[in-house]
Task: structure prediction
Amino acid sequence: MKVRVDLKACKSHGRCYMLAPEVFSEGERGHCLVENPQVPPELKEIARLGADACPEQAIHLEPDPEPGAGSRSGATGRRG
Ligand code: SF4
Result:
């Protein structure tokens, strides 16, 4: 899962980093910071908790792509 914060929408309530400090931290002027946008599996639920607590819906969670998806670039890697 990836996490992304829309800093234009963030109003520095601080709920995300108070509830989920493993994923979110306090940045300049109280805005939300994400040190590692790629959330490890063991922190997914915590990231979701922080995102759900944001009253501005400024936190966006993107699921990991399905295994094998997104690798169809047209090139097969085969030669000959
Ligand atoms: S809860 Fe939402 S608005 Fe508040 S700091 Fe976190 S991302 Fe920003």
The helical segments are 15-19, 44-52. Residues 44-52 form the longest helix (9 residues).
